[in-house]
Hints:
It contains eight helices and two strands. The chain has helices at residues 16-29, 33-69, 82-95, 98-103, 119-154, 167-197, 201-207, 210-213, and strands spanning 2-4, 7-9. A two-stranded antiparallel sheet has the order 1-2. The longest helix has 37 residues, at 33-69. It is a multi-pass membrane protein. The complex comprises the extracytoplasmic solute receptor protein and the two transmembrane proteins.
Amino acid sequence: MSLTAGVVTPPLLFPRAFSHVLREAANMTFKFDKLYRLGAWGAAACMVAICALIALQVTFRLVDALLVLVGLSRLGMSITGVSEIASYLLVGATFLGLAYTFVHHAHIRVTLLITRLPSAIRVWFEVFCLIIALAISLMLSYGLIGLVRESLQYNDVSSGFVSIPLWIPQLVLATSVGLLCLALAEALFMALRIAIRDPASFREATANDDSEVL
């Protein structure tokens, strides 16, 4: 069992055929792997920031409670808008690791049908799935970019205790989906190359990597 960007991947949950495409791409042709790792580090930083904010808020309340117990007055220290800030940090923690998680084949897929297909047919199913995923991600990215432009145009801010410009979390979200589009495009290129050159070798190539998938 592995833990990647906050996603737990049970053994044999990810299909061997598709993991071969991603493994070969990650090791040989993922030219933007550093960008995906940077996104993962950003997601981790957001999670650390959430934990730090909540820990500080709880600490301040505990200190006030202890002061009241010993008969002293409260300090009254608190972080304004901690819940709102944490909610926006959660956006980064959730989406910045999408591309990194995809590249390291930690996304869950249901493959009861395609794993029973011959290699020459299965590789084209993988290409089809990647095309659909890329198309949806591109449409989502396009919509998010438009949302960022609208927020910048109208100077939209959050309606909580802290007025946070909405374009900031929206830009993080758009960047995250853009990185996923880039990873999907690279994986699609890799799958197409295998499908066109030697689709029958798809299963044979994965047979030698069983120990890595287990």
